[in-house]
Amino acid sequence: MQYILTPAEMRKVDETAINKFHVSSQILMENAARSSAEIIVDILEENQIIEPKICILCGSGNNGGDGFGLARHLHDIFDVMVLWIGSEDKMSIETKENFKSIQILNIPITHISDLKTLNKIEFDNDCIIDALIGVGGSEDVKGIAFEILKKVKTSDSLKIAIDVPTGLNLGTGIANEYCFQADFTITMFAPKTGLYLNDGINFSGKIKTAYLGVPESILEPISNIYSLDEIDISDYFPRREKRSSKFDYGRVLIIAGSGLYPGAAALCANAAITSGAGLVHLCTTTIHPSVLPEVITNTVESTFEGTIAESALDYIMKASEKANSIVIGPGLGDVGETMNLVRLLIKYLSPDIPVLIDADGLKAIDESSILRKNIILTPHTGEFSGLLNKDRNLIEKDTYNLTKSNASKLNCTILLKHVPSIISDGTKTFFNTNGNPGMASGGSGDVLSGIIGSFLALGIKPLEAAALGAYLHAESGDIYAIENSELTLTASDLIVNFKKIMKKFKTEERI
Questions:
Q1: Which fold would CATH assign to domain 250-506?
Q2: pTM attached to this predicted model
Q3: ∠ CA 278-284-285 to the nearest 5 degrees?
């Protein structure tokens, strides 16, 4: 599992390393430089850049200190030059030591204090490394640093950022127009939130983590944000015993579909039955012909508009008595009577049964709704906007904080479908960073709901089921895109490819 840090958590990690583990700031800076140098050597080799000319941009803060140290590590094997801004008087002891060191080593170094000096520089290097500002910076870059960014923007060099591309807000991911366009970002301890949020995902490139000589356990009590790795996946699934039956792997009850949208219910049910659940029951008004024969279908009373009628409440409540998880919403239709049915179900369903609410079902919920921890909401940003009665653009600029705070406020788990997807129960949060634009097509969310519903029925806890479902759903899309094309990806393809990824992650060793 990959830890992700907010800027505030990053400062706390630094303090803990220094005060608790007694790894001095000088050692941390040296380890950052050494580890970054090793990663850069590998990057250059992978990109077949032979005997490169490297330009390292340094500030006078600790990020610049990392850059000065990096120059010392690289100058014996590459042609290195350093450009720096700021004042020696403002340097920390550690930064000044590295600065003095590269002067003694006669590494070419130029101080840029004005446009006249900058305009004499030709950024025709093979590689440009950004160590200008670091974690204390934001999108509001001014002065000579801004002018450097403008000039570097047009360079075709391979670009590597140390800790954060200059011009990127490491908390929000909002970037300056001339933000350093990194091909790679080498981050310290763990990736930071802003590398994934908003513009960050476009400016950070591939993210590499430098080892600073402090055990990863330092992050555990500090970080509350995580990202799943491939090696985590099989650990979540319960073992399947040889002597077992379909009743041992959970029943999913799906309340979905309508006369207008029967396909949404079919996709959801088909995804659930292929994701590990023992039994899947579908309550709907219209059975789509593509529903797999393994799905148990139940036709319930409908409204004039073809949606599920409120009078179906007793039937659904009876069906829920044997369910281990319930999915409500895909293709229900936006009809008042049906929305009232959803509200009644939220009120009267057993609090012991985990419930996922998606799509049209979300319209029955608002900020005043009383939910519970084992309810999962899976809105995209438009649906989240309606739920919170906030402008969609404002939500998309602050996805992490709004998802976390509203999961806490509503006392539930929220999976916000965005890039990245944010999954939070108000305390612990997952970022899901895989997936591709081909998944932005009708029915993709219905498949995700079915997958998570199946995982809930297997007994996986709501937050972990949502995070696991988001990861595997996206991975299914990525496998398809590699083998075919993002352009042709459909929701049905996600179900087919789900079978491939379950084999890829060797879950059969545990299931």
A1: UDP-N-acetylmuramoyl-L-alanine:D-glutamate ligase (3.40.1190)
A2: 0.93
A3: 155
